[in-house]
Fold these 4 entries.
Entry 1:
Amino acid sequence: MLRKVEGIVIRTIDYGETNKIVNLFTREMGKIGVMARGAKKPQSRLTSVSQMFIYGHFLVQTGTGLGTLQQGEIINSFRGLREDLEKSAYSAYIVELTDKLTEEKKTNPFLFELLYQTLNYINEGMDLEILTYIYEMKMLNIAGIYPKLDGCVHCSKTQGKFAFSIREGGFICHRCFHIDPNLIQISPATLKLLRLFYYFDLHRLGKISVKDTTKKELKTVISSLYDEYSGLNLKSKRFLTQLDRFKP
Ligand SMILES: [Zn+2]
């Protein structure tokens, strides 16, 4: 069946001398793999639309197995995501996380919108770390992780001083600190942001300014959750960690 879909290129693999297999995350069909014949040749009409992070309309021939890319039309090339080292590294992580956590042909328009909006914000130069933390918080459920963020994970109380318990999977209040010897201490700002990132609509993101110490706490909590529960070990994430070491 020939279908026109709106999608974003989230992975490309060279196939033979001249072809590429392209993974698209689409609004209509979720993640799909398509063969782009000739896409490695510079003069092919599929070359420019088969690059990483391209957002466009794609005409695909679908069947039971791998589909075929017939044609593509770029809506936004997200060029900045390929040309800037940092933007490219963060975007690579965002799309790899999406790729690894989603199944083929499982439609999820909300996730499509989230992915598009996140890449768009990265392209526009918004805070890369904050966008990444928001994306990670929103992907937790897709990864099968449901942290308790609306009260203490042990006694459900909503008042008091809070820390984060990876083992218990959520906020924990001072009355219950004793049940986990490996708590992560967090500031009230971090608590607020973790909750905000998990629940709010990304469309409503305005200018957001977060202190470095808060960012560090956010990173510790979110990375620990993924390390403990997701079973993922992503190459793009390791690269981000290396990149981090070169920051002044
Ligand atoms: Zn408690």
Entry 2:
Amino acid sequence: MTDRRTFLSGAGVLFGAAAVSKAAMGAVPEAALQTTPAMAPPLYPTTGRPYNPVVTLNGWTLPPRMKNGWKEFHLVAEPVIREIAPGMKARLWGYNGQSPGPTIEVVEGDKVRLFVTNKLPEHTTMHWHGQRLPCGMDGVGGLTQPQIKPGQTYVYEFEARRPGTFMYHPHADEMTQMAMGMMGFWVTHPKNPRATLGYQDCDRDFCFLLNAYDVEPGSAVPKVNTMLDFNLWTWNSRAFPGIDPLVCRLGDRVRIRIGNLTMTNHPIHLHGHEFTVTGTDGGTVPPGARWPEVTTDVAVGQMRAIEFVATEPGDWAFHCHKSHHTMNAMGHDVPTMIGVDHRDVVSKINRLIPDYMVMGERGMADMGEMEMPLPDNTLPMMTGTAQFGPVEMGGMFTTVKVREGQARNDYKDPGDYAFPKGTQAYEWTGESQNPVRAPSSRGGDIDPATGRVKELRASTAPPVKETTVTVRKPGAASGGHQH
Ligand SMILES: [Cu+2]
């Protein structure tokens, strides 16, 4: 912090760069800093048009400064330390102390001036994803501007012409810089909400980015060359159980804005409520073009706003529906061991490696509870507990907590849901607990206690019919194609 103040007050160095325009000279606004992954309360506007501000999961909104009719912000690109979930911190690149950077919130028609200071070891730029703006403000390195060299500050000036949900990220060495966590959210509120077809004010307006990292167990810096096999699937650079719950008051109209800056699509699924997609990359969806959903796919580079009325009290799961995306590291490349009896092998290995543990022979659920020693700074593959035990999740998973009696604008976690008597699934204790099951294909029954196939019994084993398949390759002689 001291370092940054010194840097900013060293105006000779900073403003000597041709990058800073005349209009911006005089003073660069303070670059507010956030060092915790805690959710900041919504930032209500103190000047300009009123709006209902967004809440950024495990994030915060950058306070603007008004200057001669311009709404000014200062983003500082820099190395940061981000706690992905309790027990694991990653060395990322981000803005103003965190990854993702702070959310930018403005109103349609605002004149916006953004100072971007580069404190990274390599050059960068800033692209304002989805905005209508002059081409020279679009932030594509080499194409619309020279890259911002380390130590330089560039100024972007444009009018927020279109209301909607946007993102920001570098357009310079993108593969590296986005894999390191450089991104942020942007919301432009409509100037006249009633005149915007289909737009509705909401009681709660949440936002987060979908992002992903590949951090080897035991290390802290993401592997930046990974294309698809990420091992940490995150919302705002947080993995379950580190992701804030979305706390709602019963009856609230809720909007959730999601932007995807990963390398794959994410089908985002909400339990207990239907929602409609009310906003896309291009703005508000006209009401006649909407349909109800419980899952919506957010493709790469897309933004979606979903809306619903929180009519059902409870702790509702809210997650990506790709099951590997609700797991943390170490779950993706292990062999399947279901049904394998490796008791003998284990006792031999244990003589050499006392901590060695067998996993997966009855399925992987044991991973939710097991206290296997992990490398330092590594999240368990599936983790998190709630009032009834292990949740066995990780990655892109959290809850929407709907509560009667939650105060308006109160985002504090109300704790576990108190299920009313008679509204929960319960164990059947009557007769017929062990219905006869079909024999397995190996001719034996599965022993429910061990998960292993019981001894093969002649009386139940179906005859095994050997079939010989002859495969003949089509060749040129038979007139086949050369495939
Ligand atoms: Cu996903």
Entry 3:
Amino acid sequence: MKYVTEYRDAALVKGVIGEIRRTAERPWTMMGICGGQTHAIVRHGLDQLLPPEIELVHGPGCPVCVTPLELIDKALAIAARPDVIFCSYGDMLRVPGSGRDLSSVKAQGGDVRVVYSPLDAVEIARQNPDKQVVFFAIGFETTAPANVMSVLQAQRLGLKNYSILVSHVRVPPAIQAILSSPENRVQGFLLAGHVCAVMGYWEYPSLVQKFNVPMVVTGFEPLDIVQGILQTVRLLEADRLEVANAYSRAVTFEGNLPAQKTIQRVFMECDRKWRGIGMIPMSGWCLRPEFDAFNAEKRFDVEAIQAEESPLCIAGQILQGLKKPHQCSAFGTICNPEHPLGATMVSSEGACAAYYQYGRMLSAEHVA
Ligand code: SF4
């Protein structure tokens, strides 16, 4: 398959790894922001091929993982209502709330449906005028265009029975929070290529200058990832503070301007709580007040719901690059994909799920 097969070529990957070995002269810690990159790194064992000077840590770029517990509880409360059809991406169904998950609400008779696009949820609303249809609009910048388009489409169709439960987060404020922490160990970032395909990378140079940390826009195939690592090592070794683009087949500096404009029309920046991490100022997108009619939190009066995380779960530290999954006392024992304590164990982009799925609990010495 064009643009995929050649980026999985083992010989090319080994060649780039060799160049990383020749380039890295000092120890460097770098963070892959995106959970999709984490899974590719662990699945292909890329971190185990790197020289000992390079440590990769995992970032918060897993939308399912950072959706706050109380928002899951709000989703559960709305989905359990008999007048509601609750639509979500499949990833969210097994994410634990305080006591149960969306799958158990469905098993108990709730009308919970998996959709592949928020526009499918709009169509369900059109076909079911006697029901309230709610879409669970979570994600980073990547999914925002489709989510805001669903609101505009519902408005255009005059639908009064469609709303979205929003938990949108943004990468630049998360990077700022990580770099502002006194515990920060990250010296370079692999930026998420799909986020930058939408937003460009014009938001990052000011962060690079403020925190003296280079960043490289990086894709998702093995060759993309090792090329992103190589570029980061080159910038670090040369003390060059800049944003490089190792994913130019998909990303431009400006990004997708019509998509950005559409997002701004429907969403505005707001404070957002991240699961396990806490509140990060202006790190989210919320519906603008003129779209209150499409705001499920207001429609169903669930804004006051609060929740407490399991004290055992250290996902917040994992998502900030401070710990790795096998360092959690619950990993693989009382927390596993069948019985997850935290979202990072069930999400397809979660670091704990990646370590479990690819057997890393048996090889902690390779990743410590
Ligand atoms: S292994 Fe489970 S309890 Fe531990 S950090 Fe991961 S999700 Fe949380």
Entry 4:
Amino acid sequence: MNPWRDLPSAPGSGRVVDTVIENCAIATVDAQGTEYESGHILLTGGTILAVGPGAAPPVADGARRIDGTGCLATPGLVNTHHHLYQWIFRGLAQDATLFGWLIELYPRWARIDEDAVAAAAQAGLGWLALSGCTTSTDHHYLFPRGAGDLLCVTIEAARLIGLRFDPTRGSMDRGRAHGGLPPDEVVEDLDRILAASQDAIDRYHDPSPGSLTRIALAPCSPFSVSSELMAESAALARANRVRLHTHLAETVDEEEFCLATYRCTPAEYAESLGWLGPDVWLAHCVHLSDAAVKRFAATGTGTAHCPSSNGRLGAGHARIKDLLDAGAPVGLGVDGAASQESGMLVEELRSALYVSRLRAGSPEPERALNARTALFLGTRGGARLLGREDEIGSLEPGKCADIALWRLDGLGHADIADPVAALVLGPAAPLKLLTVHGRTVVEDGELRTADAAHLARRARAASRRMTDAQGS
Ligand SMILES: [Zn+2]
């Protein structure tokens, strides 16, 4: 291995190193799976300039130096499925299946407003940062009339916390009056949704390389959305070159709904509407046939695997190893906090591995995930789902400086020799540093961009207000 192969900007190149991270183990998650027992990372202007083994080469005076002794550097984690507003609706419907849980929670969710969503999004994003996440999506599909600009407040929350953010303009148009599951007061009509979707793209979508905000379109699920909205959203997204997201094949109940309503499985239904393709990523995909797994691989359709949420709702074990073996893209998501109260993305690495081995009945790498595959899913796999694999998801020169530096020298991890095993199999590790585009978001285990205690107080007040509103 040539230790200098990753130094395109050697002295004389004119690019000034502004940050040096050194003395840490490094898992680059590049295509070769390159790892260094002890190495360094050089940053310049929000991008990675070099990654290599051993001590950092001399750099100009004035560069910030981070001593990573006892730490592991990985790409920042990428969260590919979430509903940030749910942060203030945790601990409810604890023993319900997906449909029962939704029916219990829809009336509470119908009360949301800008203040409640802002409080939930700031808390949820702050918590994601503290669990190593540098890029997140958000699937917001609830827009009660008169509730304000709810998409805008989630984008403002991401800018406050400092995460890279690819939110979706979600939607529901199939209420109970039309055979859907949601109450009619929380759905919108088709024209309003399409106009709001175009507006969201026009106002917020930034396609430039390394951008901090990109929009996708995301009708909610087969049982809350009309076929027309699915097809029209796909057409609108493709006309604007933005991505598509929805829930699919999450539960047996959903499959039965599709068979009864559309006379086909959820995956067949999605394909009939133009919803399989390299610009589509789908949450859950627990119940897929062999034929569906092949179609996902052939079309490049992504799966956002949310193992803890699937466990909380008893949805089943997703066929992640089968999807990966077939060549289909897969990333990880925490899902909304109302069905996954933890909200810690780093924990999903371990959950994905465990669920895979429980499904296989075996820990053998030929049959189930291992620690490095789990780390891949949480980083580069997720980056591909968001169409950002050239920008984030691995530590390589030219990519964005989105880096998690995990402390592995404390009581919870210090005796585990393999740092990747310590991160994935051990308890959730604290962060020495988290950078997004080179900017510090977390340092020494604390959020630096916002006051975590204030976020907690605000979320608690919003949660109580929503609960009181329901009771009044
Ligand atoms: Zn979800």
